[in-house]
Known about the structure:
By secondary structure, the protein is mainly beta. It is built from three helices and seven strands.
Amino acid sequence: MSSSSTEKQRQCREILTKAVCGKGRKYSTGTHSVTPSHHSLTILGCWVMNHVYKAVKVGETVEVNGSYEVNIWYSYNNNTETTVQKETVKFNDSVPLSYYDSNCRGDVEVTARVSQEPHAVEAKLAGGKIIIIVEREYSVEVVGETKLCVVVCDKCNDDYKEEFYVESFADPDEFDEFDPDAFID
Length: 185
């Protein structure tokens, strides 16, 4: 087979498509201070609810901004009465991208997924205030337009045989060992 015949068989084509151009994940903790309405109290419980957030790409990071409500249940008046105090807390987490292809073009779509919902891991009294520690974790993706280069063969015709292509370009046994979860952060 001549080299011009080989070139004709294996030409490259560029395909424009949307693809994941960046990924990242971040675990963080936040410490919040709440001034209770009553004194001489005992903390009975603490939980986080009404969590809302949005994600925006800023340079090569993704900013996750949002808020949640911290609810502190405590007793007071010598443990004869209880109440729940609610505080809305705002947060901003800068998630670094562990992978980012700066060649993506056009407008990008940024998505954030909660890997771990915000939850209180500790609530304690300190100097007349209630100190709450909240954990949270987010995974982010940046999707943009990118260009793929694919090999094009002129062997396609009505007698298309899948075996020819699989055997010509890949070892079929490699697909048995393929783990798609290995590529997910």
